[in-house]
Amino acid sequence: MNVSKRILVLPALATCLLCYAGSVFAADVEANKKRGQVYYRMVCTVCHMQTTGESIPPASRTMAEWRSYFDADTHDATGQSNASVRYYTSQAYRETIKDQNKAARKFLKLSDEQIFADVREFAVNGAKDSDTPATCN
Q1: In this structure, is the dihedral angle defined by the CA atoms of residues 29, 116, 35 and 124, taken in order, positive or negative?
Q2: Helices (H) and strands (E) in the chain, counts
């Protein structure tokens, strides 16, 4: 193989390995619905109540709608807050609210992927068409 072909093959191989490693890592995160419930109610709901005056319970959407919401990773399309759902489950966000929020402080050391998976699991399994619709009252 000549040098120019090696230059093209190596970045492609590295990209494939990184994608594979990322998918293996993501598969290792086992969602914890109970932890997701605590985070959702103590972080998400509290913030929504403070900023909009209303909560968004999991039972307000279907399972498919929640999956689509989390897959799209679009929290706020208005531009009035961070647009990413993942931001609100990140360690960086938890760090900013840890002094005022017990759940953020308690789960500060958990990975971004873990909390995101936990919250998603709670929301999807608490949807209005699930076996256990969840409200946040």
Answers
A1: negative
A2: 7, 0
How far the first Cα of the chain sits from its last, in Å, is 65
DSSP secondary structure letter of residue 57: -
**How far is Cα of residue 19 from the mean position of the Cα atoms in its chain?**
19
In one-letter notation, the amino acid at residue 5 is: K
What would the pLDDT profile of 56-97 be if each residue is shown by its tens digit? 999 999 999 999 999 999 998 777 788 899 999 999 999 999
**pLDDT for res 2:** 53
Per-domain boundaries in the chain? 1-30, 31-125
- The answer to whether the beta carbons of residues 124 and 49 sit under 8 Å apart is no
3-state secondary structure of 80: coil
Contacts of 131 (CB under 8 A, 6+ apart): 125
Of 79, 88, 96, 94, the residue nearest 123 (C-alpha): 88
Strand ranges (E), the chain: none
